[in-house]
Amino acid sequence: MAVYLLEIHENLLQTFVPVKYMDVELAYVGGEEGTDVFVGGASSQGELYRHLFHIRSSPGGASGNHVIHNLDVSAESNELRIISNSSSPHHLVIRLYCRSIDGQTLGILSEYQMMKLAD
Predict the structure, then answer these.
(1) pTM recorded for the entire structure
(2) Main-chain phi, psi angles of 36, to 5 degrees
């Protein structure tokens, strides 16, 4: 099982332009069986969004991917949760695309960069 918890808010990237939207891209690079993935967000006022899906490799061994678009990011700290039920290590590749209110991409966070933010 893999669990990622990340506190997100509009100043996540520390830029002059606040982050207002986020796209979450998940790619599965494990075996053929795939995995179930939960992506959810919660604030002090309750659950903001919930996505549950199954992701697996595409035919020919290529990674399968899933993108969740336009997750709201506010000035209040919210918790982003990404949970999968696969026991194989390094089975997901995660990227967070942070965008402004106008849709401009401000930055992309990889799984490695998210771990550095946590340290």
Answers:
(1) 0.85
(2) -90, 140
